[in-house]
């Protein structure tokens, strides 16, 4: 079994790589930071927020395939009043969170780099269900990715490829800590190792969507039943407590 994981150097990406390696698989791991390869781990360095870098990477990805598992994990946020965040930060965010997974998926399909029965996983966000005041463009990028995944699912199924979209809540990572409002409790965030195991298990069960853990499932239901109330709550517990703009 061979997996492709983006954003593989830390957090959830690193946990996914370790899960695949521990189960005997080989991994092509992509990150802008260098990873130590060897054995069943093949590291590729690229800035997935830069389209030129992505285009240069595509032939290397194809050459390293085919893949049984692809996880589009790489992502970045921007928090604070949206009018205070410069356009170049949003451009980087939208390229990384939305455009790159689409471009990579299209190239993997076009080149026949996905094995029969392969799994493709898109990491969206719980904000798809609840809204995310204080991170409007991040929420928009993850919404777009979720709609894309839903739209291509049927066509990819015809090719023997299963699509799973994941909507996680807060995860205990350095990135989440950097964007968290003052006083946010890290112990209430899901551990990357736990989330990685849930993602792989859900994909193997061919689940279309995954809201991992009680917090994400409750947020999903609340967003469906009381969207306006849920968004107001998110504004109070996140946006109103942000004491800085981070991008």
From TrEMBL:
Matching SUPFAM superfamilies: NAD(P)-binding Rossmann-fold domains
Alphabetical UniProt keywords: Oxidoreductase
Gene3D superfamilies: NAD(P)-binding Rossmann-like Domain
Top-level taxon: Bacteria
UniProt-listed InterPro entries: NAD(P)-bd_dom_sf, Sc_DH/Rdtase_CS, SDR_fam
Family membership noted in the UniProt record: Belongs to the short-chain dehydrogenases/reductases (SDR) family.
Protein name: SDR family NAD(P)-dependent oxidoreductase
Species assigned in the record: Hoeflea poritis
């Amino acid at each position: 079994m061979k997996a492709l994981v983006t954003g593989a150097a830390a957090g959830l990406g690193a946990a996914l790589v370790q899960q695949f390696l521990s189960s005997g698989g080989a991994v092509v791991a992509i990150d802008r930071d260098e990873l130590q390869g060897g054995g069943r781990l093949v590291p590729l360095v690229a800035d997935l927020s830069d389209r030129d870098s992505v285009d240069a990477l595509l032939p290397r990805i194809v050459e390293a395939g085919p893949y049984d598992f692809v996880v589009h994990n790489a992502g970045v946020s921007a928090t604070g009043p949206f009018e205070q965040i410069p356009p170049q930060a949003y451009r980087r965010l939208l390229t990384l969170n939305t455009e790159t997974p689409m471009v990579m998926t299209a190239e993997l399909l076009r080149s026949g780099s996905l094995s029969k029965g392969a799994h493709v996983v898109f990491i969206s966000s719980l904000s798809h269900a609840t809204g995310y005041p204080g991170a409007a463009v991040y929420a928009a990028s993850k919404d777009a990715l979720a709609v894309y995944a839903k739209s291509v699912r049927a066509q990819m199924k015809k090719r023997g490829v299963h699509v799973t979209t994941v909507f996680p809540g807060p995860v205990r990572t350095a990135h989440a800590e950097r964007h968290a409002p003052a006083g946010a409790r890290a112990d209430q965030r899901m551990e990357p190792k736990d989330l990685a195991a849930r993602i792989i298990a859900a994909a193997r069960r061919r689940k279309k969507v995954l809201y991992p853990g009680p917090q994400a499932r409750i947020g999903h239901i609340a967003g469906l039943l009381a969207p306006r109330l849920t968004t107001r709550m998110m504004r109070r517990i996140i946006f109103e407590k942000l004491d800085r703009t981070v991008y």
